């Protein structure tokens, strides 16, 4: 069955919100999609009727197994296109998201599987988000927030959680990208900012930025 762009966007957004807390409220979804709660309620009834949601009025909703399957497929397409745009077409990592938002609705499974094979079956997109495989499976991550590292701990940057243009631009200026090895050298008590070593250079990152970077201890 084919689904509209709007339906796919709703399912994908619910999927992401569910990751943070399970049941999703109408107001949370309306805020995320920048729309009215009444519009969300109408779509929830529509998706529920198609068996894509478990919906309880005034309480919230979760994706059904079929709804989650569709949402994960959209996420897979989105992240593969982001990787393609960044790795092969050399788009800036701040540009790829908005373009992938359009490409993710090209739903040919054969095309996406061929794209995955062509790209060498990448595990993560340019921001470090895991790419679901052709069966919808996502590799487990053992990453932790940079803010949790101790003095003199060395780690590799794996993922950027907050992917706003401002954050991504700031990371570029500090030359902090996916795969970069860093080491915490100092933690400032007054604001919990960190002084970290990248290669032979020292850079300071705020507490907010350190919370947005997931790393793997080496």
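Q: What amino acid sequence fits the structure above?
A:
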């Amino acid at each position: 069955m084919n689904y509209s762009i709007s339906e796919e966007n709703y399912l994908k957004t619910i999927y992401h919100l569910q990751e943070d807390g399970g049941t999703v409220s109408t107001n949370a979804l309306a805020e995320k999609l920048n729309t009215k709660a009444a519009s969300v309620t109408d779509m929830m009834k529509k998706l529920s009727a198609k068996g894509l949601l478990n919906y309880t009025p005034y309480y919230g909703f979760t994706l059904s197994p079929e709804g989650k399957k569709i949402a994960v497929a959209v996420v897979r397409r989105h992240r593969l296109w982001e990787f393609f745009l960044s790795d092969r077409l050399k788009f800036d990592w701040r540009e790829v998201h908005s373009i992938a938002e359009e490409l993710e609705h090209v739903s040919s499974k054969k095309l996406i599987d061929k794209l995955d094979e062509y790209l060498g079956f990448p595990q993560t997109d340019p921001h470090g988000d895991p790419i679901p495989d052709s069966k919808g499976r996502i590799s487990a991550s053992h990453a932790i927030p940079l803010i949790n590292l101790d003095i003199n701990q060395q780690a590799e940057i794996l993922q950027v959680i907050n992917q706003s243009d401002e954050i991504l631009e700031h990371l570029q200026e500090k030359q902090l990208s996916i795969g970069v090895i860093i080491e915490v050298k100092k933690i400032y008590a007054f604001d919990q900012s960190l002084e970290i070593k990248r290669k032979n250079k020292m850079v300071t990152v705020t507490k907010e930025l350190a919370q947005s970077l997931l790393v793997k201890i080496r």
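Q: And what stands out in the fold?
A: The longest strand covers residues 154-160.
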